[in-house]
Automatic annotation (TrEMBL):
S-adenosyl-L-methionine binds at residues 18, 41, 102, 120, 145-146, 166. The record marks 3 as: Interaction with substrate rRNA. Pfam families: RsmJ (PF04378). It comes from Pleomorphomonas carboxyditropha. This is Ribosomal RNA large subunit methyltransferase J.
Amino acid sequence: MNYRHAFHAGNFADVLKHAVLARILAYLGRKDAGYRVIDSHAGIGLYDLAADEALRTGEWRGGVGRVRAARPSPALGDWLAPWLSALRAVNGGDDLLVYPGSPAIATALGRLQDRYHFNELHPQDAATLTALYAGDRRVRVGSEDGYVTVRAQLPPRERRGLVIVDPPFEEAGEFDRLTRAVHDARKRFATGCLMIWYPIKDVAAVDAFLAGAAGAGYPRLIAIEQWVRQPGGDGPLAGAGVLVANPPFTLADETEAILPELTRLLAEDDGAGGRVLRLAEDG
Ligand code: SAM
């Protein structure tokens, strides 16, 4: 297990992933009833942007750094608002000192009645995450294989909520494991929202994954993809996507409307682009 998210936290891929995550949570929070968030590959929760890892790559500057320096249109500003409010909450204002990972975004946007199961396999990272949430009785932290978590924690008692699966893609076969996770989640928690992150390196592998995920039979399934350079070449990650099952009804349309502007903001060259795929739609 070599992957450490501290080198990448706040990069362009985190911007799309976390802004979508925050929009889903804002949508779940519209009803008073509590929901549960199950995060199978949670990381450490909060990332110090002055830490050695962040300084060494500087990746956050091309992601959250650019967004914070920009003057977005009203439409993009609205779309980013839940994520930006989580950023402000963990920083105690407009300074950008720490970057919230998926657990910290979830708890920053959550309420007393919401519950969290965060899982992280790396023992040191799991200990960091446990310490972060020591005082928060809404949170449980586990440390097992994240795909076991998806099966073991579903369905949640609340019968509403979100499952996030965000693996590091450092071992072969990750797309196959993700496809199985989509099928497992559909079987155990058919009405729940599911969000999966994936890198866009091998476009054929992504297409095969999306086709396999569609086979799980979710009535509504979308994917949101963005690349800051033309994918396919060697070098750093060029693009990434999120697959969302049972998304909020407006997510595909509102994301499609702001994606060109967000892509211009994050582009590294003129090969940048983005798209929203509607893989299953029940009208
Ligand atoms: N979801 C986090 C966020 O958005 O802030 C980032 C997660 S990072 C991309 C992937 C994490 O998965 C790493 O912290 C890594 O240690 C952990 N990991 C690797 N293999 C795992 C496994 N089999 N089960 C659970 N976690 C794993």
